[in-house]
Amino acid sequence: MPITVTDLRAVEILDSRARPTLAVTLTSAEGAVSRAGVPSGASTGTREAVELRDGDKSRFGGLGVLKAVANVNGEIREALQGRTFPDLAALDAALIELDGTENKSRLGANAIIGVSMAAARAVAMAAGVQLWKTFTNEAAPPRLPVPQFNVVNGGVHAPNELDFQEFMLAPLGAPSEAEAVRAGAEIYAALKRRLAAKGFSTGLGDEGGFAPEVASPEDVLVLLVESIEDAGYKAGRDGVALAMDPASSEFYRDGKYHVAGESLTSDEMIERYAKMAEDFPLWLLEDGLAESDWEGWQRLTARLGERVELVGDDVLCTNPKIIKDAIARKVGNSALIKVNQIGTVSEALEAMRLCREAGWGQCVSHRSGETEDSFIADLAVGTGCGHMKTGAPARGERVAKYNRLIEIEAAERLPYGLS
After folding, report:
1. Cβ(378)–Cβ(384) below 8 Å
2. Which of 192, 263, 280, 284 sits at a 20 to 30 Å CA gap from 347?
3. pLDDT(280) > 80
4. DSSP count for the chain of H helices, then E strands
């Protein structure tokens, strides 16, 4: 559907970590006034599209985004205003050309993705359809995704000794989205009770998960299995499975992985994951090895790729070029999809297309710094990717995405779960 941009405005707002980000509002001649809140990551790959920050230490410790805001209100607005684009892909291509850099560092990926998300919404509004319907096609029928609830936080997301960053619940066996969300909420409550009974803190990390002083990842997995059972659910792939995002680039130094006081080689780390997969219902492992350890990733894929979904985040950065290379080299079997990581919605959709055609999984994801914008819920449903992660079943910026999934399910009869 064509879109004619008549106005474009941005303002600096706060994300869920009390850091600045952007909200972008686009007005189109087709009658749409659409808004997008831009997410921001803490655990970031080195090849991500670049957020533009002000660097003025007198404001937000240098993290302000007034330069990115000015780019939207100035150069980007001037370039797009009054122009008609045949579709979102054409508008995104114009943004990429305007920036002129490989990593969107001139205008800022945070400025560009805000405009791209707002434009995607404007296209849907002008067509009079729900946002998710604009992402569907014959090769990717819509599907309600399995939610991955991040219920224990560590790494850069929490001030504790836990090196692994995320421990997640995945209700694979739930009969519906609403029941999956209920399972996540009930197990989250059971986990809080169990942590309190054991004398652990029930304070929260960046993504709403608990941040207990537990150093061993295996001990966390034990707690999760116990909490699943406490809540009356079955731990397993036909019930509630487990997923992890160690974010291993964060604890990879001098060719070794430093976990809970141990220094492990790539092969030792792989064998540790293999033992976890034997002892626990581990369905998915994200960033199990560092972004620079491609040979290790190949061995990890050969060792566990038939039984565990091996998701690349920092190693792939939602970048179609990198994903194409990883597919050819058998590095992982799934990609995390973060729209701000690549910088336009169209490029994220291209990354998903490549994964789909290669038989890879795709997991749409939030960031640690979020807004109340539920855009990614529509993206996950419309592309039929099968699963999505957006933090704990707590905190408004996380719950907004889960609630959006429930609303879509209530309005439409769509299948739930992995395809």
Report:
1. no
2. 284
3. yes
4. 13, 15
Phi, psi of 187 (to 5 degrees): -70, -35
At position 321, the amino acid (one-letter code) is K
User: Under a CB-based contact definition with an 8 Å cutoff, are residues 311 and 336 in contact?
Assistant: yes
Binned at pLDDT 50, 70 and 90, residue 419 comes out as confident
Q: Which residue among 104, 338, 389, 401 is the active-site one?
A: 338
Tokens of 281: 């219902």
Q: Record the tokens describing residue 33, joined without a space.
A: 């006034």
Separation of alpha carbons 396 and 406, rounded Å? 15
Given 48, 51, 166, 207, the catalytic residue: 207
Residue whose structure tokens are 């519906």? 176
| Single-letter amino acid code for the residue at 17 | R
Q: Which residues pair with 264 in a beta bridge?
A: 257
pTM of the model: 0.96
Cα gap 106→67, rounded to integer Å: 10
Distance CA 207, CA 164 (A): 14
DSSP track, 73-96: IIIIHHHHTT-EESSHHHHHHHHH
Is 338 marked active-site? yes
Nearest to 65 by CA among 19, 112, 16: 19
Long-range contacts of 267-272 (CB under 8 A, 24+ apart): 267/296, 267/299, 269/296, 270/296, 270/299, 270/300, 270/303, 270/304
Average pLDDT, the chain: 95
* Rounded CA separation 418/172 (Å): 8
d(CA 347, CA 93): 9
**Of the listed ranges 157-161, 214-218, 354-358, the one predicted with least confidence:** 157-161
Q: Do the bridges between strand 334-337 and strand 282-286 make them parallel or antiparallel, or are there none, so unpaired?
A: unpaired
